[in-house]
Amino acid sequence: MTHPASPGPAADDPVSRARALLPLVREGVAEGERAARLPDRVIAGMRDAGLFRLLQPSRWGGAEAAPETFFAVQMALSEADMSTGWLQGVMGTLAFHLALFDEAAQDDVWGADPDALMACSYMPTGVAEPVSGGVRLSGRWGFASGADHCDWLLLAGRVARADGPPDLRVFLVPRRDVAIHRTWDTTGLRATGSQDVSVADVFVPAHRAHRHADRFAGTSPGLAVNAAPLYRLPLPQLNFRNIGTPAIGALAGFLDAFLDHSRARVAVGGQAVAHDPVAQQVAGETRAAIDEMAAMLRINFARLMAHAERGGQAPVADRMLYRLQATQCAERCTLLAARLFKACGASGLSRAHPFGRYTADIAAARQHAANQVEAQARALGAALLGVGGEDTVL
């Protein structure tokens, strides 16, 4: 196996539970590709294994797991199917986000069902009009991964202010108030079902809103009841990782499949592929890159947690660096996947093999707005040169 090594955990740790699901995940791949949504039985398997509750507060039945454990689970699932890992990571991180909301919002969701699932779109396209006791929210959002499977949605929007720029907030909305639009028809990450969603003049009570400013300042109301250092981590650092880390797992799965396929394969010219220096080089470089990217993830979260355990957050300059390092993962994985696919030769085109799916899924992650490595590199470089503006998405 080429997945990154981890300490020897107990037999029933989350990573072991994730790996036990891999036959179910693989069995559902073709159906997920056809339907452009993950099969319900795969979602149910992850829910029953507690994989969506890893970052959920223990007071609500969650594991309050270490971030490196959470992302090791995401990588393991992505080895078999990147769409599955994507949904576990994106939807699982929303348990962390809900923990930052007012306690009453947490009770609305988890008091009724500790296994409730959430989807989101953080595109700030919603418009919220203040009314007595809350807001009236309207808007349409794109890329709501897992919307077909959720019970609640977190949707970003703006509240106009007379004395300044709009107040940015994320609103918690029950699934019954949301329309899902079947817009997701893609060449990669098809089974994520990242549909458009909309709401029309829906009342959202005040306790179901989380202010962007509170999140950035570390003054979220949920911290009054969820006091574990975990919840002092900056939410965006988790979000950057949950859209890049699946690419690491998928690349590991691709490499495993490539090695299995290539060890005994003979090229058209009669040469054993295992002796091809190009195949040897890309296999070695890919294995090293997987280990490096996984190691950097663990190092960065160890640094972030050290600050959280002291009751604070890492400096903004450090968070900018960690954001760029997270963003670089999708870029690196895309380039390595393209090289592996080339080394597969014409046999890589066959749908009997997973090579084309891995390549397309990893490339799809690279297209995510938050995985644009050039923009994040420029932002960090500008800050280092002393010409950067305020950056709160950290």
Description:
This protein has 394 residues and is an alpha+beta fold. The protein has 14 helices and seven strands. Strands 5-6-2-1-3-4-7 form a seven-stranded mixed beta sheet. A hairpin with a 2-residue loop joins strand 1 and strand 2. The longest helix has 33 residues, at 277-309. It starts with 13 loop residues before the first helix and ends in a 10-residue tail after the last helix. Residues 5-11 have low confidence and may be disordered.
Distance between the termini: 34 Å
Q: Structural class from helices and strands?
A: alpha+beta
Arithmetic mean pLDDT: 95
Proportion in helices: 40-55%
Which word captures the global form?
globular
Indicate the low-confidence ranges by residue numbers. 5-11
Strand content: 15-25%
CA radius of gyration: 21 Å
What's the SSE pattern? Answer: HHHHHHHEEEEEEEHHHHHHH
What topology, given as strand order, has the largest sheet?
A: 5-6-2-1-3-4-7
Tally of DSSP helical segments:
14
Number of strands: 7
Largest sheet: 7 strands, mixed
